[in-house]
Amino acid sequence: MIVVYTAHGCASCRKVKAWLKENGINFIEKNIFKTLLDSKEIKYLLSRTENGTEDIISRRSKIIQDSKIDLDEISTDDLCDFVVENPSVLKRPIIVSEKNMQVGYDEEEIDGFKRSEIKKLARCDRNCPHYDICGAVREEA
């Protein structure tokens, strides 16, 4: 399942959701201001990054600048607590699936989510209750 972390008024978030809907890909939307994230979820997001905080935390955020937090020196637990209290420091959207993670909307990279969904469907065989749909998707790909 794909999870999209969004915020109200985010143009890139709207683009991602529209792209997923247009491509018939199911997703769960988590508005970072309405669905409170916990430390465990922040740690999970950090574990999926290639560059740690740089990938998902906006260093230009006013809150980061005002608090004078050194993202390179703060402990993971303290960082997670800070993000839980200040979700606006997260870059958006953050798109996460079992195999992919993307921050922001990039037309070329987002295709990876489509391919992974098609591959997941391709694993079924004639015994799958959705084989008629899966077979049609495989023929289109």
Arithmetic mean pLDDT: 86
Name the beta content range. Answer: 5-15%
Head-to-tail CA distance between termini = 20 Å
- The CATH topology is Glutaredoxin
| Global shape | elongated
Main-sheet strand order equals 2-1-3-4
Helix content: 40-55%
SSE blueprint:
Elements: E1 2-6, H1 11-22, E2 27-31, H2 39-48, H3 53-56, H4 62-67, H5 76-85, E3 94-96, E4 101-103, H6 111-122, H7 131-140
Parallel strand pairs: 1-2
Antiparallel strand pairs: 1-3, 3-4
Helix pairs in contact: 2-5
Can you walk through the features of this model?
The chain has 141 residues and is α+β, with helices and mostly antiparallel strands. It has a single domain (2-116), classed as Glutaredoxin (3-Layer(aba) Sandwich). Helices cover 45% and strands 11% of the residues. It is built from seven helices and four strands. It has helices at 11-22, 39-48, 53-56, 62-67, 76-85, 111-122, 131-140, and strands at residues 2-6, 27-31, 94-96, 101-103. The protein has a four-stranded mixed beta sheet, covered by helices on one side. α1 links the parallel β1 and β2. α2 (39-48) packs across α5.
Short descriptors:
7 helices, elongated, Glutaredoxin, disordered C terminus, single chain, 141 residues, 4-stranded mixed β-sheet, alpha+beta
Quick summary:
With 141 residues, this protein is of the alpha+beta class. It has helices at residues 11-22, 39-48, 53-56, 62-67, 76-85, 111-122, 131-140; strands spanning 2-6, 27-31, 94-96, 101-103.
